[in-house]
Amino acid sequence: MAIDVRVTANMQKHLGGRSVEANGDNVRDLLADLDQRFPGFHDMVMTDGEIHRFVNVYLNDEDIRFLDQLDTALKDGDVVSILPALAGGS
Amino acid sequence: MVVQKTEMLGRDEMPVTVYIPTPFRKLAGNQTHVKTSGDTVGEVLDTLGAQYPSLKHMIYDEDDQIPGHINIYVNNQEIHSLQGKETPVKDGDEMAVIPAIAGGSVGALTPDQVERYSRHIIMPQVGSSGQRKLLEAKVLIVGAGGLGGPAALYLALAGVGTIGIVEFDTVDLSNLQRQVLHQTADVGKRKTESAKETLNAYNPDVNVVIHETPITSDNAMEIIPQYDIVVNGADNFTTRYLVNDAAYFAGKTLVDGSILLFDGQATVFVPGKGCYRCLFPAPPPPGLVPSCAEAGVLGALTGVMGSIQSIETIKQILGIGESLVSRLLIVDALGMEFRVVKLRRDPQCPLCGDNPTVTELIDYEGFCGAPFPGEHVVGAQS
């Protein structure tokens, strides 16, 4: 399962780029794959096995909270975006 | 070319005089009356449009129809009461092309306003009635900084009649990399004062209302209900959650935008169709997501995102187009990608969900674990 994962600029230093390829049959496995390859990734996105409430994960254009959350199934070619809240305005 | 056309008249053609009112006169070689020709109103207008292409854009819309705000008169009779564009004209007739300045009615546009806003008015989605809506609109800008600056600027240029600005900070040299309302000579000035000067220099029509204070739980419900729409340019989570809740309680549309580094997010929250808490149920612990002051932000990106907020605000005022309601726009300036994801009202949302637990403004400093900037700290960072 080759999934294209997109992150914001403030996460890119952990992944080495804005976009990385990762594997997983569902979002949970995908995030585990990323955490294994990029130490510290888990804490940036999750607490106690759940996604932080200030971070949204989208499968293509849909928020996984409105799909099957971490169990949301993935298929080849999907795009997963990880989007933390930004507060900047000034 | 104009001279040639005029000289060509007279032998076979029937000269008709067309009166050009002040707002359009510049588009017709500064003439009060143009002599032209044709057997019908439509033919006269076509000849006139061929002579003065920029005038043509004022009297015909993109479908080649005369827009609703333009009235055409033949000898002082409006052509709708005659035969429209097929109305015959003859030698010596006088026509007039009159934009709806709505003489006498409340909120009528002055000739200067018709000229100033002509590029908006000629678009059928705006027209003179839309321009009057803009002039009557009241928009509150939270923060006169990176996002609030360009948002306020374009709203002022568009003629939004009342622009409120909530801001407590002073202009710092480090603001000038992106904050377009403030210039080098403004360093040290109150941002509200600098913003008002800039906006009024661009457009003296605009009533700029200053709220020289941090927005807090104590004043939010006094300030927000005075406006139709709120534009969020806050730079911290504490203010974002407060403004979200207060706009919801006041029943106001919130045009949200945020930025960090090379990333921008924008959306529109209409009460009942999702809110900031539906999007992000809780703020990050303090320090986990850096601020622009800590991590940096691309100055030009604040212009893009603030402009997008002004566009969404104008669309809300005019009631046109597809707004960002229920959609989140994600801008990646490094990859130069604009993407849109779905945003839903969360039935579990503590504010706008099915069983709300937040029924009045709460302790946002406790909720976010961070104080409102400017309330406790003198010389707070922007």
Can you describe this structure in just a few lines?
Chain A is an alpha+beta fold and 90 residues long.
Protein model, in words:
The complex is a heterodimer of chains A (90) and B (382). Chain A has 90 residues and is of the alpha+beta class. Chain A has helices at residues 9-15, 27-37, 41-45; strands spanning 3-7, 19-22, 46-47, 50-51, 55-59, 62-63, 79-84. Chain A has a single domain, classed as Roll (Ubiquitin-like (UB roll)), CATH 3.10.20.30. Chain A has a five-stranded mixed sheet with strand order 2-1-7-5-6. In chain A, strand 3 and strand 4 (50-51) form a beta hairpin. The longest helix of chain A is centred in the middle third of the chain and has 11 residues, at 27-37. In chain A, 39% of the residues are buried. The model of chain A has no long low-confidence stretch (mean pLDDT 93). Chain B is an alpha/beta fold and 382 residues long. Helix content of chain B is 32%, strand content 18%. Chain B has 15 helices and 13 strands. Chain B has helices at residues 2-8, 22-25, 41-51, 53-59, 111-116, 118-121, 127-136, 148-157, 191-202, 220-223, 237-250, 276-279, 292-295, 299-318, 364-368, and strands at residues 15-19, 33-37, 70-74, 77-78, 94-99, 138-142, 162-166, 207-211, 229-232, 253-260, 263-269, 327-332, 337-342. The longest helix of chain B is centred in the last third of the chain and has 20 residues, at 299-318. The termini of chain B are far apart.
The helix-strand sequence of chain B is: HEHEHHEEEHHHEHEHEHEHEEHHHEEH
CATH architecture of the largest domain in chain B: 3-Layer(aba) Sandwich
> What is the radius of gyration of chain B?
26 Å
Our estimate of the beta-strand percent of chain B is: 15-25%
Task: Identify low-pLDDT runs of chain A.
Answer: none
* Helix-strand topology string of chain A: EHEHHEEEEE
**Largest interface: chains, residues each:** A-B, 25 and 50 residues
Here the CATH topology of the largest domain in chain B equals: Rossmann fold
> How many structurally independent domains of chain B?
2
From the alpha-carbon coordinates, what is the Rg of chain A to the nearest angstrom? 12 Å
Give the uncertain stretches of chain B in residue-range form.
1-11, 102-106, 377-382
- Annotated CATH architecture of chain A: Roll
Q: How many DSSP E strands of chain A? A: 7
